[in-house]
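Supplementary Methods. Inverse-folding protocol.

Structures were first reduced to a discrete structure-token string of length 193. This string, shown here, constituted the complete conditioning input.
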């Protein structure tokens, strides 16, 4: 309702995303992908670190959108975040159609992107092993996604806190995600610990 106020608040937070780099959890998944052992990454993260680590963007299903893009709620056009300054008129990013742009992320009270949810359900429904890494899975509808895995599919949890799916886990690695995934990468010969 108040684009000026929204962008004054949100732009500082989006600029912070550039300060972060992939950690060993992200690179563990990139290593799996490089050996064709990863069919999809379903993530609630919005900063693009999976892609930055080397995971093919086509494998990444971003349930909450991405800060790497801007979107127009009127015409549906999307633009790379890198074009923010070019698209800014006064203090607001504006679509060529004339409407104010927003970050391509799910904001409070917005629905999840239908296509991302459909692709996530399909990917999870076809897995033989589901890795739950770094999420307590308490926010729905994402918290319910592991329920789409086939009954015969294994479940491994790597997390530093309890998760709603922990009791179903075949394997549980508790502790710091970066340390656990770095150790797995080293143990599998992907990288030095």
């Amino acid at each position: 309702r108040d684009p000026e106020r929204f962008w004054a608040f949100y732009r500082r937070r989006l600029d912070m995303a550039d300060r972060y780099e992939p950690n060993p959890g992200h690179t563990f998944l990139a290593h799996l992908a490089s050996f064709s052992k990863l069919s999809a990454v379903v993530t609630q993260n919005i900063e693009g670190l999976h892609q930055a680590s080397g995971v093919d963007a086509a494998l990444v299903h971003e349930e909450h959108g991405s800060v790497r893009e801007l979107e127009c709620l009127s015409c549906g056009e999307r633009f790379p975040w890198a074009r923010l300054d070019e698209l800014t008129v006064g203090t607001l990013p504006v679509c060529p159609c004339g409407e104010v742009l927003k970050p391509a992320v799910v904001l409070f009270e917005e629905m999840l992107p239908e296509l991302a949810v459909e692709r996530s359900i399909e990917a999870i429904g076809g897995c033989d092993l589901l890795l739950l890494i770094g999420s307590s899975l308490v926010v729905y509808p994402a918290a319910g996604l592991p329920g789409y895995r086939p009954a015969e599919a294994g479940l491994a949890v790597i997390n530093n806190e309890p998760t709603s799916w922990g009791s179903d886990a075949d394997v549980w690695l508790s502790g710091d995600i970066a340390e656990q995934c770095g150790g797995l990468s080293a143990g599998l010969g992907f990288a030095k610990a």
